Amino acid sequence: xxxxxxxxxxxxxxxxxxxxxxxxxxxxxxxxxxxxxxxxxxxxxxxxxxxxxxxxxxxxxxxxxxxxxxxxxxxxxxxxxxxxxxxxxxxxxxxxxxxxxxxxxxxxxxxxxxxxxxxxxxxxxxxxxxxxxxxxxxxxxxxxxxxxxxxxxxxxxxxxxxxxxxxxxxxxxxxxxxxxxxxxxxxxxxxxxxxxxxxxxxxxxxxxxxxxxxxxxxxxxxxxxxxxxxxxxxxxxxxxxxxxxxxxxxxxxx
Length: 254
Fold this sequence. Notes:
alpha/beta; Rossmann fold; 7-stranded parallel beta sheet; 7 helices; globular
């Protein structure tokens, strides 16, 4: 079974700003209903929902809180209908500045837990809250957001990268379990995006270097990466699950 993008109701976590907002805009452009989840970015999320019109709603929940996620999903269903599609994009507070990163000698357990709690446990909470309705309908699409640093850790962001690696594992094990219910689970792994709040601390010369060594000779934008997310929700990917698509202009192969 497949549904056109216009027939889907999409929950995008962490969609108040940055890459999440680009994903929400991309789905809205294709006619989908969109739930813009946010943790702290209320003004930005509500402003985006207003721009996207009556097929979008901004709802607050910290994805680390299972009860808050469940309440958000109930509110979304009452507002615009059952969620058919999830994009787990939420990111714990982070700044992509290699000079300021924690080295392995200074890395704390709290930093590790913060990233894993949002990326992995947050995904679990959202999946558990939304998949019962998907299974009942015999259709569901889940897309997680990863990173090409798992394949190519040129900057060792230990906490962030290890959380995304664990999320990739959860993506694949979940795909194996949910496939018989008509639910696909895939990952889109971007590189450094030009530009989001998280990458705003990245020096300009780093962006320039990445562009110079990337086959497409440019740094991927949030809008470009968002289009790849749409693929995994679209009918054209109906036979694809458990996959990780790297979207970085060809910088990393594999």
